[in-house]
Amino acid sequence: MKRISVLITVALLLALGAGTAVAQSGYDLFQKALVKERAEGDLEAAIALYQRIAREHAENRALAAKALVQMGQCYEKLGKAEARKAYRRVIRDYADQQEQAKMARVRLAALTRPKRAADASTMVVRRVWAGPDVDILGAPSPDGRYLSYVDWETGDQAIRDLTTGENRRLTNKGTWLESSEYALFSTMSPDGQQVAYAWLNKDFLYDLRLIGFDGSEPRVLYSNQEVPYLQPAAWSPDGKHILANFSRKDGTNQIVMVSVADGSVRVLKTLDWRYPQKMSLSPDGRYIVYDFPPEEDAPERDIFLLATDGSREIPLVEHPANDLVPIWAPDGKSIVFSSDRTGTMAAWVLRVTEEGKPGGSPELVKQDIGRRALPLGFTQKGSFYYGLETGMTDVYVATLELATGKLLAPPRRATQAFVGANTSPDWSPDGKYLAYVSQRGRAPFGLGSHIIAIRSVETGQERELSPKVNPRPNYGTLRWSPDGRSLLLRGRDKKGRQGLYQLDADTGAVTPVVQVEPGVYLQQAEWSRDGRAIFYTRSDSGTKSSLILVHDLATGREKELYRAVIPGLIGGALAVSPNGKQLAFITGDQATRSQALKVMPAAGGETRDLLRAQEPEVIAWQGGLAWTPDGREVLFGMHSTSLEEQTVELWRISAEGGEPEKLELAMENLRGLRFHPDGRRIVFTAGQRKAEVWVMENFLPELKAEK
Predict the structure, then answer these.
(1) What are the pLDDT digits (tens) for 628-674?
(2) What is the CATH number of the domain that holds 572?
(3) Number of structural domains, the chain?
(4) DSSP structural state of residue 37
(5) How far apart are CA 165 and CA 129, in angstroms?
């Protein structure tokens, strides 16, 4: 993938030109504002930075004028009248900046043009929901008033009233410490009275469930141990069937229709390990469109059309770019999809004939909708809802004085490349290199390519490895081997098999260490200190348990060290002591709604509780667990159960037990803590979990038929 965001920033800075030391700080602010506006989608924060530039760097007229124009465009996106004020100020105070003044006049004319009846067809894009509680795994109701979503404070299926802003849970599973079950993708029935959704049950299997709009009559429509994962996509127009994707235990995927009456299944197409990210059913129920990788090794996707009667299938959109997440327009005459063929992820529309064939060439609808945009659905009147992942996750380095628990140097980004797309860091054993995972694909939910970056601590130079394994970007394991010659990572190979893989640090060659079937979920993994074995945690739908295992690399034999049977769970954090003799890990007990930070011998044996926690304060499940270099203490994260407060505080406790002590370090969603060999520098992942819901109205063009 091209480094579009970096090139844009560099080009803008070159266009602005060099200046004094004071002016250069203005350029830095401008760059930060662009990141807020274009990468994070945080328009309010971008506006504040543009205002600051115009106020503090007015003497740099080129920069100030450009900041005001950008600020006006941000206000336009938010639908605020302040856009006119910004453009008028450019025209009045910066007329000598001809290019910016011309742009301001054009935008002001567009905003002040008298409204006519024809303006009813002018495209409008507006944000309808933003905040820490936003989820974008649902769909709008047919009338556009409600949105189904997952309430991640508990994992319940919920409904949001987009008019009043009221949220309402349809299910009531209790807190995370009471139950690890949760809802996932959902879609609303044509009459708006029912919600179909995926549900991870207590046995680590996904069910297809239905529930009334008012929370009444919940029922399991489909559940099968041979189908550990499934994803509902759409209801049939008559409300009698649900289109879904089944991921089977044998590694294959199926496009199916499930009867709402009795849960019976009709298989429309059986696929290999590859699967659709998005499927959509035409309003007349005759056709399905879905995205799919055309080749086994291709990170990009094309779009295909499948007749629901099984009569035929054709490629609908074929292009070297990434074309994905298609959805039918309400009139059934066109589809809307995302594509990065212009360099940024944009919305495109393609006319489809009644015979289910392309009716022309795709046409651009809206440029730069966000590289992590996910369509949610159309309303009956043609309003198009989509979600944006706007959170930023990065690798940070800080310096900590363990004797006092104070920060000697505050956290700073370890790299300025691909800001917001970096995670899972680890130092090499000699401390000379930092490895991390970086996402390069312009697609939601980790779709696209990932690379392993290896950065020289001394020079800052980086080299990239592109393994034939897709690392799990959110909670991925990336660990240097004790000899510094390879890296351990968790991810999926090109055939979709989940596993732990050993990556040669020089060549990028990949060797499988552990591969598991669907229904088994790998979590954290660590090397033994001698490099001869791997410790890892996993959850198993077959045994209904969580395990800690040790895998001997020479023989492939495994030994179970610890087992937690439901309602007990093992979290995704595991740490090996510096001498290699002890393991630290976190468990949860749903029956008592409590957690424990435990240690045990690395060879297996009795466990000891270092700390027990009770709601509303909980131990961070993912990462943030590390031994101090002298092996005397264990560091861990603590946070609140509230979605409004995502800050994870770093604490420590003696390996012998006792009272925990809070350290100075705290950041949003801090995880994956790793000590540098010097015992002072620490590296970790942190960032915001943020999303927004937007609606696009009056945008479908009059598409031209192919001549």
Answers:
(1) 999 999 999 988 765 555 788 999 999 999 999 999 999 988 988 99
(2) 2.120.10.30
(3) 4
(4) I
(5) 8
